[in-house]
Amino acid sequence: MGRGKIEIKRIENSSNRQVTYSKRRNGLMKKAKEISVLCDAQVSVIILANSGKMHEFCSPSTTFVDMLDQYHKLSGKRLWDAKHEQLDNEITRIKKENDSMQIELRHLKGEDVTSLNYRELMVLEDALENGTSALKIKQMEFVRMMRKHTEMMEDENQSLQFKLGQLQLNPMDEQHVMENHGVYDHHQQAHVPDYEAHMPFSFRVQPMQPNLQERF
């Protein structure tokens, strides 16, 4: 007894739907591989599940990009809008500029110059001379900056040396002041009048020992 027909409609049960998706996806991928090998056909298959997971297959002899380009040429349909075309043109322009700059860089290094004509060689020579002049100017600016920095460091060093000398001189000045102050005190003491010598005899301190008084 053969299997009955299955009504093609969305499977409501999520578990059954996932099982059916896995089985039919594997079967579709298998058929795509078979027709690619058996018939030497270029096959590309992209399957996107409702979960967002992607499954893909592409014949080993081609790529998805080449398949899309062929589809674009054969069908005449516009796969990209104006914004994508503008972006693609910009990418192409940047690639060309990069290739041109790479060639110019090799020429500046002295590589691949045999293919240049006289005018191109003159342009290259002017570019090298301009580059050399700019390099010399930059070197001179760097030298001037280093000299200025060195002068600033020397001035700062002299200032520090002067301050250090001042700090070393201050204790000596203080000691000198103290010594002068001591001499001043000594002179003051030397000039103190001897009042005891001019005091009357009756006001002089008399000895307390009686034997000393008997001697007088």
SSE order and pairing:
Blueprint lengths: L13 H25 L5 E5 L5 E5 L5 H12 L6 H27 L9 H73 L4 H4 L11 H6 L1
Antiparallel strand pairs: 1-2
Q: How is this structure best described in words?
A:
- It is a single chain.
- With 216 residues, the chain is mostly helical.
- It is built from 6 helices and 2 strands.
- The longest helix is centred in the C-terminal third of the chain and has 73 residues, at 118-190.
Number of strands: 2
- Alpha-beta content class: mainly alpha
Low-confidence stretches: 183-193, 195-205, 212-216
The major sheet is characterized as:
2 strands, antiparallel
Main-sheet strand order equals 1-2
Rg measurement, Å: 54 Å
Q: What share of residues are in beta strands? A: under 5%
The topology string of helices and strands comes to HEEHHHHH
- Bulk shape: elongated
- Round the mean pLDDT to the nearest integer and report it: 78
Please tally the helical runs, counting DSSP H or I stretches of 4 or more residues. Answer: 6
Helix proportion range: 55-70%
C-alpha end-to-end distance: 172 Å
Would you summarize the structure shown here?
The chain has helices at 14-38, 64-75, 82-108, 118-190, 195-198, 210-215; strands at residues 44-48, 54-58.
Keywords:
disordered C terminus, 6 helices, 216 residues, mainly alpha, 2 strands
